Amino acid sequence: MKKLIIALLILGAGLLGFQVQAQASNLLADPGFENGGSAIVLRDGPWTWSGGSNGDAFYDPNVARSGSKSAKTVMWGAGGGDYAYYVEEFTGLDWTVPYNMSGYFMRNSAYPLQPNATAMFEVKWMNALGNLIRIDTSPEFNNSYAIDQWHSIAFTTPTPPTGTAKVAVVGVILSNQAYSSESAMFTDDLHFGVIPEPGSILMLGTGLVGLLGFVRRKR
Fold first, then answer.
1. d(CA 180, CA 198)
2. Backbone phi, psi, residue 2, to 5°
3. Confidence of residue 153 (pLDDT cuts 50, 70, 90)
4. DSSP of 85-138, one letter per residue?
5. What's 112's domain CATH number?
6. In terms of C-beta distances under 8 Å and separation of at least 24 residues, what long-range contacts does 35-38 make, across chains too?
7. For residue 139, what is the DSSP state?
8. Which of 19, 35, 71, 197 is the most buried (most CB within 10 A)?
9. Tens of pLDDT along 77-89?
């Protein structure tokens, strides 16, 4: 019984470590797009946006995975190669470790993602002068995903490149050809942070091994 209690304590500590790290390591100031204030476009909170001459990003109170809002990123579609995106930038991070980026996408039947348009997350690594060194991208979100459902998209970056001094987290929608109708994506519940520390992984594994050993002995 003592060994079972020890195994359960270690397992619980490992799970708690994962939970604490997951909460603490999300570097995004407004991952659910809830803190937009009174502005409609994503510019009065931690996020900023750009869309060239044909795109915008909005706080949307009508479509949300959790909370009361999501981000709606739109292209009006005047020509091929158009784009729209929102971004949050960071400095002073640990540039020696990989990072996780994840979030949820939706294509909505009221504002569909048009043919030949795609969306994705980007992590852009820059030097002290703001010059781009490398871009890491998530898998594409496109019209192959079921409509009116939230879909998880996640990826892990390699270690930041040498010379990194700033990183930008981006949600972007792209057009691969000209069209005249509106194309939109919705995103919510984003996460950007370091991967779990080895100590928590080791503690979780030790607890599982101890628990499995106890179960086998009972049999």
1. 50
2. -65, -40
3. very high
4. EEEEEEES--TTS-EEEEEEEE-BTTBPPPTTEEEEEEEEEE-TT--EEEEEEP
5. 2.60.120.260
6. 36/69
7. P
8. 71
9. 655 566 788 999 9
Whether the CB-CB separation of 82 and 55 falls below 8 Å is answered with yes
Domain membership of residue 70 as a residue range: 30-195
Query: Judging by beta carbons within 10 Å of its beta carbon (0-12, 13-18, 19+), is residue 133 exposed, middle or buried?
Result: middle
Instruction: Tell whether 113 is covered by a domain.
Output: yes
Domain count, the chain: 1
Written as six digits, the tokens of 100 are 């996780």
Residue 170 near residue 87, CB atoms below 8 Å: yes
Residue 15 in 3-state DSSP? helix
Residue 209: inside a domain: no
Q: Does residue 19 fall inside a structural domain?
A: no
CA–CA separation, 180 and 113 (whole Å): 13
Residue 23 maps to a domain? no
